[in-house]
Amino acid sequence: MTDDRIEAINSVVGRLIGREAKPLTLLGMPTPMIDISRANLHESKKEFLVEKAAVETVVEGLKSIVEQIVPSEEKDTPERKAMMQRLQIAIETKALQQVRHRNLDSAMDLAIKNIFETGFYFGSMRLIIAMYLIFNERLSELKEQEAQFWTVSSRPPNYYARTIALRLARVYARETGKRPTFGMSREGNFPSTDFGRTLEEVFRILEIKASVRNAATWVLDQLSEDDLRPARNALAAYLDLPEPKPSGLLNALSGR
Prior knowledge:
By secondary structure, the chain is an all-alpha fold. It has two domains: 3-33 and 157-253, no CATH class; 45-149, no CATH class. The protein is built from nine helices and no strands. It has helices at residues 3-17, 45-69, 78-99, 107-149, 159-176, 194-206, 212-220, 234-239, 246-253. Helix 3 (78-99) packs across helix 4. The longest helix is centred in the middle third of the chain and has 43 residues, at 107-149.
């Protein structure tokens, strides 16, 4: 995000909470007064299904590799054990031949070289097992998201809009000790409260095309008494802590 957009976010949020100080990184770079990163969610069901299909394919491929190269005391026959010993020797020999011609241009090159020299067969096996476990964990997350978000019959809400509205509401509540309010002006179709106007402006800056009314109305029911308590310290205030655990955020965003 550009510095101009960060400055704009800080300006409108600062006016809302009465604190114009702008958080900086250790290098002096401006950062938003609210977390504006996207939750680990997708814009559409099509986008979600593309990732889920890719991860499923990777998991199946890695599982197949693991089953082929990882020894199994229960399943390995004498013939298979002999084959794997021959294969290990052949692979190690080729790995040592290749490593002599590898250039060390980065730390990553050095890490790969170490795997080649310290036992490529078993080193790569451990990496493949780690990849399988990590991708399988991601697949579990996607299945959880599918159950919560993408099996509904109606059109799902804009989760990024809800996330931003919830973060702004929590910052407002902790800074002021009050619950934000929302209403629409009788003179036109625009928010009539400070929180609503700020949320509308934040949506405009972030180019979020969603109903401010829907997001604000939803978020008012999500706040708890804990959200009204001041943050423990300045760092906690800046980070908008405590944040809910990922599963809690998913449940909150889905209205559960």
